[in-house]
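Why does this matter for the project? Reviewers at the last site visit asked to see concrete outputs rather than summary tables. In response, this paragraph embeds two records directly. Each consists of the residue sequence and, immediately after it, the corresponding structure tokens. Nothing has been edited or filtered.
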Amino acid sequence: MASISDESKKVKKTSNVKSDVNSMKKTENLLKRYLIWILPCILYFLSMRLDMSLLGLGGSTAATKQYIGSPSFDSFFTSYSEKHQDPMCRSLHFFGTSLVIVQLMMNLKLLHSLGPSLVVGFAVRNFTMFLPHGYIEMIAMGLYFIGTAGKACRSAFPPIVLILTMYSFPFIGHLYEPNALEPFIHPTLSVLTDFRLWYEVVRNFGPYF
């Protein structure tokens, strides 16, 4: 009887240890999920507070970005839509965004990294409003996404595939409508606008085309 009770105690201890390990892993994963937001939020806060002209990096907004200053996303969305009138171009945008959404739903680690990466993009955008292009913004957003998502997925392959999917189909689409400047001037807003355009298509069942 004593041996049976000892064995049952060992089983209970083992199960308790396993449950503690599992709870610690869950807590660690939760902390990691929130930690990747800290740097983007700090950067964005600084970008809203710092005057870049005081650092000698320019203080005026570049001509290519001036209309963004007022009604922001809505004005950009209207301008973006007007520059995407060709049906084939729009269809490829919709198809590419659909594939991106499928990848995000199939791998939530990519989705968890996309949000803070967009915040990084907005922060760098605020720092570089005096530049006529958005290359630095695009690179910063992409590298943060690949770094955080790659670490979460234990491979850089999934985030790189998602980025290639996100940009390849619109690039092909703009062979039919050659005005693909927005992603290189406003990369962060362009990503959000593609999701908005996709939503408009689904909501209205096709008037976008």
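We now turn to the second protein, recorded in exactly the same manner.
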Amino acid sequence: MPDTVLDVDFCRSFFPPLSNGEVYFENAGGSYAPRQVIDTLTAFMGECQCQPGWQFASSRSARARLDRAQALMAEAINADYDEIVIGPIHHAQCVRAGSRAGAPAGTGLRDRRHQPGSRGQRRRLAALGRHWRDGP
């Protein structure tokens, strides 16, 4: 097998903040989104940022984009589509693909029962045979 060399410049080209030659290693400041994610979010926010699932055109487009994101995430981590839950950021930690049925879905914060949108997340977890665990 021939020697393979990593093209660092090619890899860095996917991350616009690295174009200035600096790298930041400070908590989340060191986590960069690739250009493709930035472009996708920019398109979403510019074309159909609304509540998905309604019958007007931009809402249908938003739902289709979220469904595609869910399918791509499932494919990326070799999970089933219904093992991935995409919801508001405060619910992002509630489901982990591949955990056994009935295992608690930790939220990382004290009490999510009163968070907006938690009812839908609780229903989705219950449908997966999971339950919601409040607490740290």
